[in-house]
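FAQ: What does the model actually see?

It sees only this:
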Amino acid sequence: MTSTIASKSTPIPPGIYCPVISLYKPTARQEVDYDASYKFFSHLIRGGVDGLVLAGTTAEAVLLSAEERKELVKVARRAAIDLGRPQFPIVAGISGQSTNESIKLADDALEAGASFGLLLPPSYWAKAATKDVIVGFYRDVADSTRLPVVIYSVRHLESNNCNKSNLCQFPAVCNGIDMNSDTMSELAHHPNIVGVKLTCGNAGKVTRLTEEYSHEQFAVYAGSSDWLIPCLAGGGVGCVTGIANVFPKCVAQLYALWNQGKTKEARELQGLVAQAEKACKEGIAPTKFGAAHFAGPAAGLTDAKTFWPRKPYAPCGEEKSAWVVQVMQHLENVEQALPDAPSV
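And it is asked to produce this:
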């Protein structure tokens, strides 16, 4: 590591973080189902993930009110405490288009029990979001909250089954804005900016940033588990992955195998995870259907409508649902054979 900056006072722990889907009541208004959310949070923690991410892209954050976001953090913290994990990392999405909104979301998340905040760059007026604007935005938010900030780096990802006129998973999350490693390195010097989630899938950013910074100075995570091993091999310390909603034990096992030096077994499981994760790249509805089908029963949640996207968005149709099962089912037996995480 070449940087001499101080370690962060609250580094984000390494590991597998699940960007948890939002669950709704099967009513016309689809109110957030906090009881179902508690069960699902508990299921994921028992499954061995190292942290939960709330109010991110996979959680349909743009469809959640500020109050719903805050309450979900409270419920997640209660689930962790009830499982004997009071310090369990909970990362709350704090992305707003204005600096003021993001600071308010950060304050709400901290009050509700969040450990860290995940923050996208401003992007509504993309041409106006210059490097200076982006750097100023992150510094202003980080200056104004005690919640440690994690950068959320996104660019558009085209899925296997998308064409250019049918943009899928991240159509307007960041409006084409893609921060380079130099910008993130500049932000890494802020004492309250602790790391980055690289949903951009750029392994070069991993190696450049980890050459400069230790995990304690500025942590680097993959934004999905289909390139977890490449990220870890490049010096990264984990990932934030939507497929953990479906197979939390499998992703936790992949991370554990690599850390144990069992590279052959890790590579084999990495391939299986990557094949299944391509369904998550198709969007929120396939991810939620996969979670309902494979994880719902284990979590004690059997009503498929609990996992439907929030209106106006629609659940998977029959053909897409069958495809999701087809590409994910090879992990079902692996998941069921793995034990729960040991109690603390």
